[in-house]
Design goal:
23% of the residues lie in helices and 51% in strands. It is built from 2 helices and 6 strands, in the order αββαββββ. It has a 6-stranded mixed sheet, with helices on one face. The radius of gyration is 14 Å and the shape is globular.
Amino acid sequence: MSAQEVATAFVAHFYSTFDTNPDGLAGLYSPASNLTFEGTQHVGMQAIMEKLKGIGAVKHTIKSTDLQPSASSNAIIVFVTGSIQIGGDNALHFCESFQLVSTAPGAYYVHNDIFRLNYGL
């Protein structure tokens, strides 16, 4: 799989799962994973899952996905922009970046995840 194919498949899976079954995201994170959500740090799969599930019902619409190779040959940086509806409220713009690290051919976990809402756009 090319880096582009990995990023495309990951983004589709991540946001579809987040929107329909947030518990299904647990397998994408490890004890070493980091999430910075609106400036607040969450470390480890359990803390990350508590944060993500605590957001409530969400609906993502993806606008763009970009990727770059990481400094490590077994990692990919993915940057996503789009909009998110939380609990049926008006959609807000967001950006999110991920560092995906390979654990085996075709298998990746989220080592870094940074999320920000974009106000005033």
